[in-house]
Amino acid sequence: MSRRFSSYIAGQWIEGEGGHADENPSDLATPVGEYGVVDAAHTAQAVEAAAAALPKWAFSTPQQRADVLDFVGSEILARKEELGRLLAMEEGKTLPESIGEAARAGQIFKFFAGEALRIPGEKLASTRPGVDVEITREPVGVVGIIAPWNFPLAIPAWKIAPALAYGNTVVFKPAEIVPGCAWALADILSRAGLPEGVFNLVLGGGRTVGQALVAHPRLDALTFTGSAPTGHALLRQAAERALKVQMEMGGKNPLVVLADADLDKAVECAVNGAYFSTGQRCTASSRLIVENAVYDEFAARMQARLAKVRVGDPLEPGVDIGPVASGAQLDTDLAYIEAGHADGAELLAGGEQVEWKTPGHFLAPTLFAAKPSDRIAREEIFGPVAALLRADDYEHALALANDTEFGLCAGICTNSLKHATHFKRNAQAGMVMVNLPTAGVDPHVPFGGRKASSYGPREQGRYAVEFYTTVKTAYTSA
Asked: Where do the Aldehyde dehydrogenase domain residues begin and end (predicted)?
């Protein structure tokens, strides 16, 4: 293990305790590196450093903030192959996907470099004579960021970049299984010209670092992406302090395939959405809802297509799907496959672990013909496991699509303008895709869902200003 990943607090690198292995899910015998974890006291130090740095950074010029973010974005883009390789080794995405994610992270920092120069405000006439009204946006304060492991560069980027662009200071806690990507971002930020304490990285577990972060009285806002149970627990804790909160908590996303769809395109949308990134995307198409008239043909085409999907080391050319990110997640996936069998679902493809040249968490892309009541059709699995559901017609398909506690995204494959238009309006989701995979979004437009998927303002694009700023109304008499 040649690399040691450290925390970054108040402008200093903190080694932390222990030599925890940063596992390579494609080769368990060759870890990516090692890292030390900090404790609650270090977390408090990070929040206090961010609070101390806030007044100066909040009143920094938009150009200063833009320059910092532009520097970060430029370096990420210049090093996207190197960073993508680290991501592929640490999280398990294929190298092309990983390089693409690194590029996206760089583009996000570049986007918010521009937004730092475009912070909106208004000047209005008062209803009273001789009075002016100004509406301005100010930073919300010290922002805690808790990010997941499945997009270890892009998701931190779309949280850190707007936070800094609008004048906030940051304490960032990444998922424990991706310390290397978090450290790489922190390393670039540490050289970007930020004043001491504006950005802080704390490596450690949710029960120690995460809890200490949310409980600290100087924290002003929390943005979280992760599982629904963890999000709800954090939301309850934050509510006790009236903490400003933004939550993204997963999905059970439908892809509807109607009888008039281009089935070749529909199959590609389904395979991309359900299985690429090993199905480890909150936007994954985990429910494939197919109109009865083409159900059997679609199922056969999916079986033929999945037989051609190559699972293996994400660094190897020609591999379509890398490993599951961790042993714990693999256990979860296998447990859901067993649940599918127990509920009587018919296994159409996959369902078994895949042997590779090196020991790793490899799992074949799995497809069940299921009932809407089956666990695999109702609960988020977060792996390469999808449920195929039969619909009588469009109306039945729409009802099945909306029959979930989640509402992140929904897709439809159809050549009917009537049905596409109706679906866009009536799908109970924050994002809708027509003839596209449900997974795959642009960084300059809002991201978020409804129902149990999301809580609080949207992420990404210009809508990020709603969470990372607070509005002030000022009255002036001439």
From this structure: 20-473
- Calpha distance 435→14 (Å, rounded): 48
- Cβ proximity of 274 and 288 under 8 Å: yes
pLDDT digits (tens, 9 = 90+) for 177-208: 999 999 999 999 999 999 999 999 999 999 99
Instruction: Report the sign of the C-alpha dihedral through residues 340, 345, 350, 354, in that order.
Output: positive
Three-state secondary structure call for residue 301: helix
Tens-place pLDDT, residues 367-403: 999 999 999 999 999 999 999 999 999 999 999 999 9
DSSP β-bridge partners for residue 222: 144, 245
Cross-strand bridge partners of residue 133: 124, 475
Q: What single-letter amino acid sits at 336? A: Y
Give domain status of residue 172, yes or no. yes
Decide if 248 is catalytic.
yes
Determine the Cα–Cα distance for residues 356 and 313; give it in Å rounded to an integer. 8
Cβ contacts of 329 within 8 Å, gap of 6 or more: 280, 361, 382, 383
Beta strands 221-225 and 142-146, pairing class: parallel
What one-character DSSP code corresponds to residue 182?
H
Containing domain of residue 84, as a range? 4-249+453-477
- Its sign, for the CA torsion 188, 90, 282, 431, is positive
Instruction: Express each pLDDT in 285-309 by its tens digit.
Output: 999 999 999 999 999 999 999 999 9
Taking the complete model, does pTM exceed 0.90, yes or no?
Answer: yes
421's CB contacts (< 8 A; 6+ apart) are none
Give the Cα separation of 432 and 438 in Å (integer). Answer: 7
The answer to whether position 441 is within a domain reads no
Residue in 248, 291, 380, 459 annotated catalytic: 248
Domain count, the chain: 2
Mean pLDDT (whole number) for 137-152: 98
CA within 13 Å, CB half, 278: 34
For 240-249, what is each residue's pLDDT tens digit? 989 999 999 9
Concatenated DSSP letters of 135-153: EEEEE--EEEEE--SSSTT
